[in-house]
Amino acid sequence: MALNPPSLNPIVAEVTARIVERSRETRSDYLSRMDAARDSGAGRAKLSCANWAHAFAGQTIADKLTAMDGSKPNIGVVTAYNDMLSAHQPFERFPDLIRKAVREVGATAQVAGGTPAMCDGVTQGRPGMELSLFSRDVIAMSTGVALTHDAFDAAMMLGVCDKIVPGLFMGALAFGHLPIVFAPAGPMPSGIPNAEKARIRAEYAQGLVDRPTLLASEIGSYHSPGTCTFYGTANSNQMMMELGGLHLPSTAFVHPETGLRDALTAAAARRTVELARTGESRMADVISEKSIVNMIVALLATGGSTNHAIHLVAMARAAGVLIDWTDMDQLSSVTPLLARVYPNGSADVNAFQAAGGVAFVARELAMAGNLHTDVVTVMGQGIEAYFQEPSLVNGELVWRDGVSESLDRDILRPASDPFQKDGGLRLVQGDLGRAVIKVSAVKPENRIVEAPAAVFETQEDALQAFKDGKLFRDVVLVLRFQGPRANGMPELHSLSPALSVIQDRGFKVAFVTDGRMSGASGKTPAAIHVSPEALAGGPLAHVRDGDIIRLDAEAGVLTTVGVSDLTARPLAVRSPANAHGASWGYGRDLFGAFRHVVTTAEEGATVCFAVPVRPGGHTDTPPHPNFVDRTVDA
User: Fold this and answer.
1) Which of 64, 152, 563, 586 could form a disulfide with 127 if both were Cys (CB 3.0 to 4.6 A apart)?
2) Can you tell me the distance from the alpha carbon of 86 to that of 69, in angstroms, rounded to the nearest whole number?
3) Is the pTM for the entire model greater than 0.85?
């Protein structure tokens, strides 16, 4: 499809220019390292005969003969396969599909390594959730270990879900001198309607239905191989990989275990070989300041996961690009909301795809001037290829232009008539710090709350207060000591049904926390990721029960009312029982070092780019402009 877009939106241009300037030093350093790696030559040419023999000792005779040629590309595959995650179970058969496809074009492929892939749906409300965010950095590191054999001319990344794709993305960028293609597995077929699932969850929270009824509902929702069908972090990942130019076009939401999915996986493998031969579209060039902005815009235009307010910062930093929540907030102010997908609507991602999907969103955003169109992708120069979608015709994979008009305007709308004129993510700030809020699912009448605080340290204590009837009033529930330094920053969705019940009873209710809520953030206003966190001396550590808190998502305000100097109060101290519980058991004792060096949420909550402090207080590189000194011992 020919592209003749209008000029770039001036706010998008302004934010991009600011990111370029802020990132000048770190981006230049990154590209210099990638250029040096590229210029050192192909890995196989640098390996000794013994090294190369080790690399292929376990391969078939045919693959050994191909490898001995010395000029045939070898593709490294990094997989997040396990068969506990429904979204990753299909990856069990992907390596064979990839090997067969690359052999047909005279190349070889090897599984270079695997990464851990934990499921937030299994660990929700459990101690294991405290390792969820940290698993992203472990995945990045394990991707680095897999590719550090330096035996590959290009790579493929197999991953879908919450922390897995960001981790693969970060690790792969350490090898950005190579072309790298991401190959997803796709969503499961639709189960029971999302509104019905939410209704039963709320009724269970009130004791109106029993556990077998709840379990039957959940099994009806999560029922087969593939990604969960609501628009949470996993499916937000896929949207961003498309608009970031790392997928083949419109491959995100094709069901697993179908002929079309197999054809797309094979096509991705062959494209990876082609890029290895030409040296084009290396990941360091695909992921730039412009493509990072495109990924943010794609997230905002579809009401995507608030987890990416954290992940995107760390992902961009892996490419030497520095972004912050102000950038996201300003981009949100001019990004039209084009999609209503649960929890921002009643439809799931399968209905979204049927209505027009990624191809429709990409073209609409580009033609509205919200996307940079002059970007490099794995398909080549420019973004036009992402206006297309695949199909099988007589067993052959063909590409055609996506629909020009939405097939269901209750799910997907054009940029000229969006659901709302701004995106689904906003920055709120004040004397309680900086936080993000997802407003796309919150009705306008619920976006401003001013009420007394009820302060808790754990989800369990807050839920007990709900069960005891103590929260049925106008209330701002404050849950602190949930940040990355405190306990790894778990998601706090166990509270969502309770908060919804309070709101449905007619009370004004809001949630404020230094923890996470993710892409399933629903209809209750929630100021999350409050930074700096309470354990690092952040303002939430000064809040007391009964303080009046104002959360105004429209004006971008998160503040106390009537408190002259919040920080003059002594810091609250985490109870010994909770401090002890956050440091041991369920694998958490292995991550003590992570909790001590992790950056703030707005810096990506990562350990991968921690700046070592030298004697005398000097650091190797200047801190990010929003750097907060973390001197309070955990």
Assistant:
1) 586
2) 39
3) yes
